[in-house]
Amino acid sequence: MTVIPVPPYVPAFKEMESTPARALTFVTNLRAVTVGVKDVQGWAQGIAAPGWEGDTQAAHDHATTRFAVRLDTVEAALDRAVTAADRFEARLLELTSSRGAIDAERRSVNSDAATLRADVEAAGDAATPAQIEALRTRGERLVARATEVTADIDAWVVRHDDAEADFIAALARVDTVAEGEVAADDPGRVDVAALTAALRRRRDDPEALNAWWASLTLAQRQALITEHPHLVGNAAGIPAESRDDANRAALYGDLDRLGQREQDGQLTAAEERVLENARHVRDGIDRFREDRDLDTGRELAHLLVYLPGAHGGDGAVALSFGDPDRADHVSVNVPGLTSEASSTAGNLDKTFALHQAAVDAGNGKVASIYWLDYDAPSGNPLNPFDPLGQLDFGGVAITAKADEGGERFGDFIDGLRASDEGERAHLTAIGHSYGSTTVGHALQDGLPVDDAILIGSPGQPEDTAAELTGADVWVGSKDHDPVTLLGSGERGGVGALGQDPAEDDFGGVRFETGDGSLRVEDLLANHTSYFEGESLDNMAHIVADRDGEVTTQPHRGDEGGEHLTLPELVTASSGASAGEVVWEHGGEWAWERGEDAVDIAGDVVEWLLENSRWGGILGR
Amino acid sequence: MRTHLGIAALCLLLPLAGCGGDAEGQQKVDDVEADADAAVDGVVHDIAGALGATFTAGKRSFAICGDSYAPRGVTMRTSLSFAASELPDGEAIDAAAAALESDGWTVTRPANPAVVEGGKGELVVRVQVGSLVAVDVSSECVETSDDVARETQDRPVEDVAWTE
Q1: Which of A216, A449, A596, B129 has its CA 20 to 30 A from that of A498?
Q2: CB of A583 within 8 A of CB of A590?
């Protein structure tokens, strides 16, 4: 009898109770507590007696010093606990990643074994010697794979159990006051003041900062993060994971501290704004709390910038889906007018839609960043009655904000380049609306990206793409998006923000977005819908470096690229909408009175020109 | 009549003035939510069964489609996580595609072999496999009044019920 070896089914193995996501939540909360303790400890060390003298002053100083020393014990213990938790999280990330690879092989072995069993049964007694030999060879290879994967599982379980045991032991070493005192008196304790000074010296040099950060011990990094979370979290060149750790610590520290002050009725107006922005950022993260990096099991979201009081109280935030330091393709999306921390939710969903579409392109690991760390102008570009107020397209300030924003954006991108690991990532800058002008100013200053996508752009600071940058420039511009008709060009608008990049002479690649609806009530929708449909797919292909998949449409000024000017668009779209209204009020009546409808539409356009900013835009 | 028509046209010309119907928009949101619930109870259960994947968590959230000055409407996203399937990734995607097709969804296979999508009406179901299985049920933009869009976006992230 011939025997074909078939390995037995390799059973599923230990699920991880402690996941990287849970560890991240734990260590974030622990850091936030540590930040709070350090804040209070710093306050206690620095507090002066309020004009007291003699014994009263001495008693005061003695009390605050004792208080500070006691807090220092807590602080030292917490520092060690945070370091242990961070190390545990890192080990869980590695364990999740390796578990995924081992489990994929286990499932593959089981599937192949099932196929082999079926093939053996199908061959039966009629199998030829050659077939039998082939089946035997397959079986022997499968047995070897099964043996190997079983050994890998056993080794993984040991490493997993060791990681949990080590973490528990590390926490147990600092769970009494006496142990906290030992930690506080440890001569090897991290000198945070010296480290802080060293960090500040390198803040303007992301490459040097990144190299220095890599040279630190885990304990040194954690001590810096909890001592100065805002400083570490927003420093260009610090790795994304550490920035996320620091910014989350700052965020939850702010929520705790300011939430308490709110309950106590002690919030100042500025603090109220900070708390509000912090809550918007927290809510933004919460929307993606269950989304995971499918390789490591870590939360997909990374908080790369968190400055809730920046830009006159509008706040600053940058959040990445995926780890940009380890991704093959990174995109950074810059929003436009009226963007502030309070508008995070909708903008994050657009960035997430692009992220999923770029992942679908299947060309390697992807990270997709939403970046808002500039003072985007406020004001509604189209509605004169909006509480946001009017936007002054003719003012000098509107160009200055794009220029200043471009500088900040450049610093952020330099930081990403500095912390990039492995092969240099393919990097794409995306600007929407006024954000495209901001990106344009950054490109003008030598932004180190491979591709730039300008969507719904009101203008660029150079006449041609070649003058703007050495990167590939892609343009998404719907002909019925009124904002895209503001830039100067052959039939262009006032050009307050520069050149229309969709023009043939500009020299970018205009990808297909469609024209958008001509109805006047859809004009804004045309401007805000680039992260949908074909436009989204094209952007995803650019981001994933699948340029050959991008579909194009004729440039303005090129054959097939005929388009309306802004005044023509307003008139035509008003007529189109008025016509629809008339039709909805009764076709026969409308047919008879169509002329009235056109007159009314004309009146309304005239009214808009006279009474809204359109008049300013069009020079009326 | 001319006055009414003028007001109507003005309303159209100033989409931000809040002339949209709140009740109609709210109904649309409710309908999409009901469709998503039905998809979770139906095809997503079929997919989980076909993959032998165990449910771990589910959330639902809404976001405005447009910008803060022109919300336009909302998109709905229901995200569900499952422990990894017992099937190899390729077979898991094939099984998910088959489950979608048999429930009448139009299946799309993007270049990434770890992803499959199905479309039906305003909904898209996206399945991605790896160290776990992620399933999204999301909607295109549901057009509403600005007020309904903002109120819907402000709803807290909700847990999604999963019945075995």
Answers
A1: A449
A2: yes
Which of A107-111, A176-180, B102-106 is the least confident region?
Answer: A176-180
Token pair 């019925």 is at which residue? A480
* Per-residue model confidence (pLDDT) at position A236: 97
**Which residues, in sequence order, are CB contacts of A181 under 8 Å at separation 6+?**
A73
Please name the residues in contact with A603: beta carbons below 8 A apart, sequence gap of 6 or more.
B6
Give the contacts of A195 (CB within 8 A, at least 6 positions apart).
A216, A220, A223, A224
CB hemisphere CA count around A233 (13 angstroms):
26
Neighbouring residues of A63: CB distance < 8 A, sequence distance ≥ 6: none
Dmax over Cα atoms in chain B, in whole Å? 68
Pairs across A and B, CB distance < 8 A: 183
Give the Cα separation of A479 and A561 in Å (integer).
9
Residue A72 CA to residue A64 CA, distance in Å, equals 12
Which tokens go with B155?
Answer: 């709803």
- pLDDT band of residue A399 (cuts 50, 70, 90) is confident
Which pairs count as long-range contacts for A275-279, CB under 8 Å and 24+ apart, including other chains?
Answer: A275/A308, A276/A341, A276/A342, A277/A308, A277/A309, A277/A313, A277/A314, A277/A315, A277/A317, A277/A340, A277/A341, A277/A342, A278/A251, A278/A254, A278/A308, A279/A255
Is residue A433 within 8 A of residue A335, CB to CB? The reply is yes
Amino acid identity of residue A490, one-letter, is E
Integer Cα distance of A380 and A382 in angstroms: 6
B61 touches A: beta carbon within 8 Å: yes
> DSSP label at B42?
I
Give the whole-angstrom CA distance, residue A341 versus residue A331: 20
- Contacting residues of B for A336, CB less than 8 Å apart: 67
Burial profile A328-345: b = 16 or more Cβ within 10 angstroms, e = fewer: bbbbbbbbbbbbbbbbbb
HSE of A292, CA atoms in CB hemisphere, 13 A: 30
Q: Which ipTM value was assigned to this complex? A: 0.89
Burial readout A59-98 (b: 16 or more C-beta within 10 A, e: otherwise): eeeeebeebbebbbbbbbbbbbbbbbbbbbbebbbebbbb
**Which pTM was predicted?**
0.86
Residue A185 phi/psi, 5-degree rounding, is: -90, 0
Partner-chain contact A356 B126, CB within 8 Å: yes
Radius of gyration of chain B (CA): 19
3-state secondary structure of A173: coil
* Token pair for A148: 């190997």
Say whether B12 and A519 touch across the interface (CB within 8 A).
yes
- The whole-angstrom separation of Cα A620 and Cα A612 is 10
SS3 B69: coil
Cβ distance A574 to B9 less than 8 Å, yes or no, reads: yes
CA distance A456 to chain B (A): 13
Helix (H) / strand (E) containing A75: helix A54-123
What is the amino acid identity at position A474?
A: W
Q: Give the distance from residue B150's alpha carbon to the nearest chain A alpha carbon, in angstroms.
A: 10
Over residues A34-57, the pLDDT tens digits come to 988 888 877 777 776 667 778 887
Non-local CB neighbours of B149 within 8 Å, separated by 6+ positions: B25, B64, B65, B66, B71, B72, B73, B74
Q: Residue A535 has what DSSP assignment?
A: H
Q: Where are the beta strands (DSSP E) in chain B?
A: 55-64, 73-83, 106-108, 115-120, 123-129, 132-139, 142-143, 158-159
Q: Do B14 and A385 touch (CB under 8 A)?
A: yes
